[in-house]
Specification:
single chain; mainly alpha; Receptor-associated Protein; 3 domains; 4-stranded mixed β-sheet; 5% strand
């Protein structure tokens, strides 16, 4: 049993473990539990309101949850949806889920679930309890859940949110799958090149000094690069790291730089289309989930704009929202934005005219996700031989540059 005072700053409350010194329940046993309060006196007051007076309190030290993996959060939402659909009471479902989080990877989520359970047992709504943990549950999630609670469809809303999170994670994993392999191969190619310039090429330098002849431009360039890495290797490595960190921070904090990078990525031949398809899939999936949960279209479009994460799509979505607020249709705003395929706009128009916009959005989301699968598979097929050609060319240039003076001397002899 646990309780928590209703306060807007509940996340700052202290946590106390309480145990009865004298049994007062029907079972004849001393009860125990957890309570959140501003002080020890406040905790005793809260317990006395529940008829629990003779207790012993001990303050509980709670570690900060820190970052929680989206996979763990998604699994929690799915488990909660299944239990609510199985008619398990909400507080009991949260207790059962918390009892199964005994691994180190889920320790942060365990603290979050315990806090949510305490808030729910004190009478707060589930959406209000989850709003206190924005690192795990964003505004989109909480607003959708609040709409479902207001409509009395908590089980259905949790099911939709769980499916939405799972498919969003699947899209993210597909994009990582498409980017990780080329990145690893490029890093290996760079490491091989640096190793040859640092350890292999210097052994040829003594041989070149015996030729008493002018070296080819390619060999001179490689020797200059080798000398730079040997003499100033740490400085070069540190400069590269600082440059990458600076670019990463600028991408996160500077809207102008982020917009420029996003526009450049969207113009790339293969990756640009892949990113565009992923944004379309996320856009349709989020809009479908919100619309099916009873969220008003204008509010749903505002949330969809936030999850687009690319300014072009954000501005287009907000323009669509303004048009809908003025009485226009969603399909009309999508057609004017010129960032959605014509067949997609046509299907949205059909969904609006037939009164089945939710189903049409879900169908489009599925189509874009299937298209994303095909594009990732195609990219993997294309990138493998291309990367091998690039690596082969890079290593070939290094080998030719090292042996070209020897070949020329051999020809003269």
């Amino acid at each position: 049993m646990s309780a928590q005072p209703k306060t807007a700053h509940a996340s700052r409350d202290l946590v106390f473990m309480w145990t009865e010194t004298k049994p007062t329940g029907k079972s004849g046993k001393c009860r125990s539990g957890e309570i959140r309060a501003k002080s020890e006196q406040h905790a005793l007051f809260q317990l006395s309101k529940q008829g629990i007076r003779q207790v012993r309190l001990s303050r509980q030290k709670v570690a900060r949850a820190g970052r929680v993996s989206p996979v763990v959060v998604c699994a929690f939402v799915r488990q909660l949806a299944v239990m609510i659909q199985s008619a398990v009471p909400l507080a009991q479902a949260l207790s059962l889920i918390a009892g199964g989080m005994n691994t180190r990877a889920k320790r942060g989520m365990l603290e979050v679930v315990r806090a949510i359970r305490t808030d729910v047992e004190s009478g707060q709504r589930l959406s209000d309890a989850m709003r206190k943990h924005p690192r795990c549950f964003d505004t989109l999630f909480c607003n959708t859940l609040a709409a479902g609670e207001h409509a009395g469809e908590l089980d259905t809303t949790l099911e939709r949110l769980a499916s939405h999170m799972e498919k969003s994670l699947r899209i993210r994993q597909k994009l990582r799958k498409a980017m990780v392999y080329p990145g690893i191969v490029i890093l290996v190619a760079i490491a091989v090149s640096v190793g040859m310039l640092t350890f292999v090429l210097p052994s040829f330098k003594a041989v070149y000094s015996q030729f008493n002849a002018e070296l080819p431009a390619l060999t001179n360039g490689l020797l200059a690069a080798s000398d730079l890495l040997i003499d100033h290797g740490p400085l070069v490595f540190g400069s590269v790291v600082v440059a990458l960190v600076t670019l990463f921070k600028a991408y996160r904090k500077s809207p102008r730089f982020k917009d420029a990078c996003d526009k450049l990525l969207l113009k790339l031949p293969v990756f640009g289309e892949l990113i565009r398809t992923a944004v379309h899939a996320r856009w349709m999936r989020t809009f479908s989930t919100l619309s099916a949960s009873g969220v008003p279209i204008t509010t749903a479009l505002e949330s969809v704009a936030q999850v687009a994460r690319i300014r072009i799509f954000e501005e287009a979505t907000m323009n669509i929202r303004q048009g809908v607020a003025a009485g226009a249709r969603v399909s009309e705003g999508m057609a004017e934005s010129d960032i959605f395929p014509p067949d997609t706009v046509q299907m949205i128009r059909i969904g609006e005219e037939s009164g089945r916009l939710d189903n049409m959005l879900e169908r489009l989301a599925n189509q874009f996700e299937v298209k994303l699968d095909d594009q990732v598979d195609t990219l993997s097929t294309i990138m493998e031989p291309m990367i091998m050609c690039v690596i082969g060319g890079l290593v070939g240039v290094l080998i030719v540059g090292m042996y070209l003076p020897i070949f020329k001397i051999g020809g003269v002899v």
